[in-house]
Amino acid sequence: MDEPHERTRDVSREALADVATRAARAGGDYLADEFRTGHVDAEYGADDVKAVADREAESRVLDVVRGAFPDHALHGEESGRVGESRYEWVVDPLDGTNNFASGLPAFATAVAVLDDGDPVVSAIYEPLPDTLYVARDGVGATVNGQQLETGSDVALDNGTVSFVVGLPAIRDEELAKRAEAIETALGDHCKRVVETWSPCVDWGLVARGALEGIVCFYPDVYEQHAGELLAREAGVVSTSREGVYVGASDEKTRDDLLAVVDDV
Fold it and tell me: Which amino acids does the record list as binding Mg(2+) (predicted)?
């Protein structure tokens, strides 16, 4: 008997990107409306926040995907994995829940499409500034429809670097200690280290060249797939190892950041 993914019809990258864009906007538009009410229904933990808005936004994202591709697999941060298919949609409905719950206007909805496990399309939507990033494997990346190419003339010691720490590291005592050490070391080599608690916002800034680099330590897959593809298609130079991703607009900055991480 054929495997399930072998019965899934081929879908063009353009068609996948169109649905990913509509899905990300569906989630993001809902979040913007909820954010402006000033009321957040949420459960607060020591290292995370789970808001009703996460589930509601994810429901809206998945409704769009199901309507277009009912035979595709889904992997939502809130609902988990559903189905088996060559194509898998990985969704972070509210990247930046802590910010959302605290009234900080820095959050996004992220959607990535995997084809046999490889990210081929991603859409990241920041609803408050109405900023939409779309990336297609081998085609490039755009921001609000304009071609996107990374690049920064700022030297690392005068620059800003994003540091992203995933929940696997936060919840492991030894990894958490190493994360703190990496952050301190990064601070010795650049002007500022930022932790926005919304990695997809940072990915967009790196892709635009507004940040000089990004270091991810045991990142969560829900935003990593979308962000890493966006960065790659925008021209970010990167290195990935187990538990670590380092990206920058040029090889020297990437290598310098990687050396900092390796020395910790």
Answer: 77, 92, 94-95
- pLDDT, average across residues 166-186: 96
DSSP state of 62: H
Half-sphere exposure of 154 (CA within 13 A, CB side): 18
Q: The domain at 156-263 falls in which architecture? A: 3-Layer(aba) Sandwich (3.40)
Residue 157 counted as an annotated binding residue: no
Q: What letter does residue 9 receive in the DSSP assignment? A: P
Is residue 74 annotated as involved in ligand binding? no
Residue 207 region, left (φ>0) first, then alpha (ψ -120 to 50), else beta?
Answer: alpha
CATH of 4-148, one of 3.30.540.10, 3.90.1720.10, 3.40.50.2000, 3.30.565.10: 3.30.540.10
The pLDDT, as a whole number, for residue 14 is 97
Phi, psi of 9 (to 5 degrees): -70, 150
Q: Are strands 73-76 and 87-95 parallel, antiparallel or unpaired?
A: parallel
Radius of gyration of the chain (CA): 18
255 is in an annotated binding site: no
Q: Where would I find the H helices in the chain?
A: 13-37, 52-68, 97-102, 167-170, 173-187, 199-208, 221-234, 251-263
Nearest by Cα to 235 from 197, 203, 207, 262: 207
Contact 94, 100 (CB under 8 A): yes
Largest interatomic CA distance in the chain: 59
Q: Position 160: which residue type? A: T
Whether residue 52 is predicted with pLDDT greater than 60 in this model: the reply is yes
The CA angle 263-256-166, to the nearest 5 degrees, is: 65
What is the token pair recorded at 174? 């030894």
Question: What's this model's pTM, rounded to 2 decimal places?
Answer: 0.93
Q: Is 63 annotated as a binding residue?
A: no
